[in-house]
Automatic annotation (TrEMBL), chain A:
Residues 25-308 form the ABC transporter substrate-binding protein PnrA-like domain. Coiled coil: none annotated. It comes from Mesorhizobium liriopis. PANTHER family: ABC TRANSPORTER SUBSTRATE-BINDING PROTEIN (PTHR43208:SF1). InterPro entries: ABC-Purine-Binding (IPR052910), PnrA-like (IPR003760). Residues 1-22 form the signal peptide. Keywords: Signal. This is BMP family ABC transporter substrate-binding protein.
From TrEMBL, chain B:
This is ABC transporter permease. The chain crosses the membrane at residues 6-26, 33-54, 60-82, 89-111, 141-158, 185-207, 213-232, 239-259, 265-283. InterPro entries: ABC_transp_permease (IPR001851). It is a multi-pass membrane protein.
């Protein structure tokens, strides 16, 4: 019994480690929706936290709470962190939005940063990453590498972020092969390795020879490796799960942003902003382009460079919606508000968008 | 490999862990103990299975580790509910929570490391038979173990004296005790068997289904197994049917989506749960038979008078 209790205590200690604070340091705190070793989203945030700690050394003290459910628990956790002396708190999941807004109101002296949300306040900033830029490059690669001219897309939930990714991937592919087709399967989960693997098996059985995912586990990569087809990683570099399979991955690199913002709190220059950064700002990077011939690699790198320089914007017309109506005229680029509320497919998606 | 064959293989892989975990829980519940910790035992089996395989280099040793870890973990439940007579529902729920946390702790260093897959059976000649070869002679070993378990559990419960005794304990532990039956020993054995099965089901996930360790990788499959036992009205063959029906609808809805039928994906995702519950409720609609199969002292703590 004793051993069990010790085990229990150990498990709890790991899930909430808030070390004692020192006065001269800026205390930066993070809450994660998943565990810090989820292999994807939350892990990317924790890697960034570790890098901040390593780079800023004595000037900063970081702490984190992982596996915080969205809802009332998040609010309690945020309040506890705010009381414990955190000067800046990063809430790293979309679902923490309303709780972060509420706690920010109660603690006007603490700075809050909410990832991927859209509600801000004088002491609450939002930050997001243009993941769709990476997906456009993936589409370009897929169209070059697929023999069948068709890719499979494992999607999570029909929210604008995911729909934007699907459209961007297909637009990238169509820039190479205008007839490129995309099969979409909704797993209705962010993280269920076995279910994602099932979705991958189904797509491969139906004939696609490249799969990409907007779910967080390495399950699909594993299946792709087993069946000998190609795939793209998500949120973290998944090359370990498919050394001969992964073409590239969109890697979330939050560290530079975190360092900038923590530095701003330290020197008093912090202001509430709404940041939506992309490849050029280094908030997302592409994992090495692997398992592809040199000409495809070169094209991918060129595409990446063009997006970084601003020469290429993925959502630039002429683009038709799925129903055939015109969305963007030739040369016209979409504004951010439309992208952030995107609820329609572009022409060529072989799926009906769940509403 | 044809499409139909491939679909059937995918269904079998999806159904196997549910079948194994549910058969284990069936034996536990037939002895009158309700262990809601299936999810926790399963995830412990998954992480220990993966760790055992990664450390030893042999997926079979991994399977063994998964089974033993599941059984060991269920022993904790046994000590608390059978010896100390704590509330079974509360204890089972805490077992799940503890299992999920503990497995994350154990598995921390294994996240992202490449997994070992238990190789599929290969019988020269037989496996290559068109259409049925891969299905009958070319699946993973745990699939065959699940079928043997099904036969074994059915035979044990309804064709042996020990099985009859076990069911008698589940129906009335007081009467069984009065007859001089070792209620406690039987229940410990049943709980350990349930734990071992859940551990094996977990090992299937981390060594066959998706050979890797990711936190919380059972993703609710333990709860589905638990529900299957109830909706199958504690009958092994109905559990087989329920597990494969669930697997078939899960895979079928994904195929329907990929083919682009115009049904909302949220509905399709809910379909496996709906279909399984509805069908099993319909086949179990004979109330008298269901009552007969329900262990009457299920979930009640047994405190013998001394």
């Amino acid at each position: 019994m004793k051993k069990i209790l010790i085990g229990l205590a150990a498990a709890m200690a790991v899930s909430a480690s808030v070390p004692a604070m020192a006065q001269d340091k800026t205390k930066a705190c993070f809450i994660y929706v998943g565990s810090k070793t989820d292999g994807g989203w939350s892990q990317a945030h924790d890697i960034a936290r570790q890098k901040v700690q390593a780079d800023l050394g004595d000037k900063v003290e970081t702490s984190f709470v992982e596996s915080v459910p969205e809802g009332p628990d998040a609010q309690r956790t945020l309040e506890r962190l705010a009381r414990s002396g955190c000067k800046i708190i990063f809430a790293t999941s979309f679902g923490f939005m309303d709780q972060t807004v509420a706690v920010a109101q109660k603690f006007p002296d603490v700075k809050f940063e909410h990832a991927t949300g859209y509600k801000s306040a004088p002491n609450l900033a939002t930050y997001n990453s243009r993941f769709y830029e990476g997906r456009y490059i993936q589409g370009v690669i897929a169209a070059k590498m697929s023999k069948k001219g068709e890719a499979g897309y494992i999607a999570s939930f029909p929210i604008p972020e995911v729909v934007m990714g699907i459209n961007s991937f297909l637009l990238g592919a169509q820039s190479v092969n205008p007839d490129f087709k995309l099969k979409v399967v909704w797993a209705n989960t962010w993280f269920d390795a076995a279910k994602e693997a099932d979705a991958a098996k189904v797509l491969i059985d139906q004939g696609v020879d490249i799969i990409t995912q907007h779910t967080d586990s390495t399950g699909p990569m594993q299946v792709a490796a087993e069946r000998g087809i190609l795939a793209f990683g998500q949120a973290s570099d998944m090359i370990k799960a498919g050394p001969k399979t992964q073409l590239t991955a969109i890697v979330d690199t939050w560290a530079p942003y975190y360092e900038k913002r923590i530095g701003a709190v330290a020197d008093g220059s912090w202001k509430s902003e709404s940041i939506w950064d992309g490849l050029k700002d280094g908030i997302l990077t592409m994992a090495p382009y692997t398992n592809m011939p040199d000409d495809v690699k070169k094209l991918a790198e060129e595409t990446e460079a063009k997006i970084k320089s601003g020469e290429l914007k993925p959502f630039t017309g002429p683009i038709k919606k799925q129903d055939g109506s015109e969305w963007l005229k030739a040369g016209e680029s979409s504004d951010d508000a439309t992208l952030l509320g995107m609820n329609f497919y572009v022409a060529g998606v072989d799926d009906k968008l769940p509403q | 490999m044809g499409l139909a064959e491939s679909i059937l293989l995918t269904i079998a892989t999806a159904a196997t862990p549910l079948l194994i975990a549910a058969l284990g829980e069936l034996v536990v519940e037939r002895s009158g103990v309700l262990n809601l910790g299936v999810e926790g035992m399963m995830v412990i089996g998954a992480v220990c299975g993966f760790a055992g395989a990664a450390l030893s280099g042999s997926p079979w040793i991994g399977v063994l580790c998964g089974v033993l870890a599941g059984a060991l973990f269920s022993l904790l439940f046994g000590v608390l509910t059978i010896t100390v007579a704590t509330n079974q529902v509360a204890t089972g729920l805490s077992l799940t929570l503890l299992g999920l946390g503990l497995s994350g702790l154990i598995g921390e260093s294994f996240v992202g490391s490449p997994g070992l897959r238990l190789p599929n059976l290969y019988v020269p000649g037989l496996t290559d038979i068109p259409l049925v070869g891969r299905l009958l002679f070319g699946q993973d070993p745990i699939f065959y173990i699940s079928i043997l378990l099904l036969i074994g559990v059915s035979w044990f419960l309804f064709r042996t004296r020990t099985g009859l005794t076990l069911r008698a304990i589940g129906d009335s532990h007081a009467s069984a005790h009065a007859l001089g039956i070792e209620v406690v020993a039987y229940r410990y054995a049943a709980v350990l068997f349930g734990g071992a099965c859940a551990g094996l089901a977990g090992a299937h996930l981390s060594l066959v289904y998706t050979p890797q360790w990711v936190e919380n990788m059972t993703a609710g499959r333990g709860w589905i197994a638990l529900a299957l036992v109830v909706f199958a009205s504690w009958r092994p063959m109905r559990i087989l049917f329920g597990a494969y029906l669930f697997g078939a609808v899960s895979i079928g809805q994904l195929h329907a989506q990929a083919l682009g039928v115009g049904i909302p994906s949220q509905f399709l995702s809910a379909l496996p749960y709906l279909a399984t519950v509805v069908v099993l409720v319909i086949i179990s609609r004979n109330r008298r038979l269901t009552m007969m199969n329900t262990p009457a002292s299920l979930g009640q703590p047994f405190v013998p008078e001394r």
